[in-house]
């Protein structure tokens, strides 16, 4: 895993959210989820994926990801 790449992807996810680019948020989050071993980065990516799903109208998927971060 490359923490720098994961950090960049999480920063991109945040920027994409500001631009309303839900599909790009999802891609960035999935990149981190597939590659990172850092618990904090995985939690951030899971939350970002939840935001992406929320923006796409998948409220159940969003809730599932938000709950995963809390547990």
Largest sheet: none
Mean pLDDT value: 93
Characterize the overall form: flat
- The residue fraction in helices comes out at over 70%
How many strand segments?
0
- SSE ordering: HHHH
The CA-CA distance between the termini, in Å, is 24 Å
Instruction: Using the CA coordinates, give the radius of gyration.
Output: 11 Å
Structure description:
By secondary structure, the chain is mostly helical. The chain contains four helices and no strands. Helix 1 (3-18) packs antiparallel against helix 2. The chain is flat. It starts with a helix and ends with a helix. The relative contact order is 0.18.
Key phrases:
single chain; 71 residues; mainly alpha; 4 helices
Write the layout of secondary structure elements.
Elements: H1 3-18, H2 22-35, H3 39-55, H4 59-70
Helix pairs in contact: 1-2, 1-3, 2-3, 3-4
Task: Provide a quick synopsis of the model.
The protein is built from four helices and no strands. It has helices spanning 3-18, 22-35, 39-55, 59-70.
């Amino acid at each position: 895993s490359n923490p720098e790449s994961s950090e960049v992807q999480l920063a991109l996810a945040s920027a994409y959210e500001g631009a309303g680019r839900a599909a790009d948020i999802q891609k960035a989050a999935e990149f981190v989820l597939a590659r990172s071993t850092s618990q904090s980065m995985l939690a951030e990516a899971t939350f970002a994926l939840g935001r992406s799903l929320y923006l796409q109208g998948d409220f159940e998927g969003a809730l599932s990801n938000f709950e995963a971060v809390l547990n």
